[in-house]
Amino acid sequence: MDTKIRTVAKATTWQILGLVTMSALAFWQTGSIGGAVSLALSASLTSIGFYILHERAWGRIRWGRKART
Prior knowledge:
Blueprint: H1 4-30, H2 33-59
Helix pairs in contact: 1-2
């Protein structure tokens, strides 16, 4: 199991990679740096919010869990 700081570091670097990738794709399609960064940031924030909601919902579902021994 990872430490909390390692988990935060991994999540942060994953988000940065996503922002760079989304910005590059949006710039390629729009030709606008400002529009590309704006789109990437809004997509990232939306993604984080829905991920949290998704995880909280799955936290309430017992299906597929193994009992601790």
